[in-house]
Amino acid sequence: MAHYRASESKREQFRRYLEKSGVLDAITSVLVTLYEENDKPNNALDFIKLHLGASAPEPADAVALRMELADLQQKCNLLMEENKELRNRLMQYEPSPEEGAPE
Q: Cβ(47)–Cβ(27) under 8 Å?
C-alpha cells in the first residue's frame, strides 16, 4: 500500500509540474481548438503538432539567428552587386576566354 501512495505522490508532483510550466493549458487549448473545428482534419496528430508548435513563443536565440540571417543576406546581396560591377570593369580591360585573346 505504501508503494501505491509513493507513485500517486509522484504523479501528483508531475501533474503540478505540468500545470506550473503551462503544458496543461497549452494542450487543453489545442484540444479545445480541435474540438471546435467544424471541418475536422484527417490527421488529428498533425493538427495538434502544428497548433502546439505555433502557440509557443519563439526562443530568444531563434530571434537572434533570424536577425543575423537577415544581416548576412543583406551583406551577400551587396557583395554580389560589387562582384558584378567588378566583373564588368574587368571585361573592359581583359577579353573573356570565349572571345579568343590574341596570342
A: no
Asked whether the whole model's pTM tops 0.70, one would answer: no
Q: Which three cell numbers stand for residue 100?
A: 579568343
Q: Which residue has the cell 509522484?
A: 10
Any idea which residue has 504523479 for its cell? 11
Planar angle of CA 82, 87, 90, nearest 5 degrees? 125
Q: How far apart are CA 24 and CA 66, in angstroms?
A: 29
pLDDT in tens, 9-56: 899 999 999 999 999 999 999 999 999 999 999 999 989 888 887 655
Q: What span, in angstroms and rounded, lies between the C-alpha atoms of 38 and 49?
A: 19
Of 45, 17, 12, which is closest to residue 30 (Cα–Cα)? 45
Strands (E), 9-88: none
